[in-house]
Amino acid sequence: MLVIGGLQGPRKPHGAEAVQLATKAAHGLFPKRLAMESLTALARKIGADEILAIGNREHIYSSWRYRREFFADYDSFWQTLDAEPVDDGRFYRIPLTPPRKAMEDIASKKRAEYQRRYGMLDALSEQTQAAL
Prior knowledge:
This protein has helices at 15-25, 31-46, 74-80, 111-131; strands spanning 2-4, 51-54, 84-86, 91-94. It is an alpha+beta fold. The protein has one domain (2-131).
């Protein structure tokens, strides 16, 4: 089992610009989605049965001891990966194979972009597994 305790983006003031440039280079995929694609490839390679990710309620910044302003919404991000809540939403079970749209469900004017995106994701998965 792999457990994800958090995701962290770049620091301000250049964080938004860095994410925007990375997203453009990745054919519209956010960097955290790319990280999850690599992580799921790693999980498959090492034979993990499941991936659990922390929900908003259990994040360290929700604790009375470490409480501070927290802007990320982990729950909604995990749900974009078709994750299912576990233990009343304290955790989310991430699928070992991230979901993809079927080509016939994609507008014809967007299919070339999705083919490039999926080709990049397949290469990322292969490179991750080859590195191990």
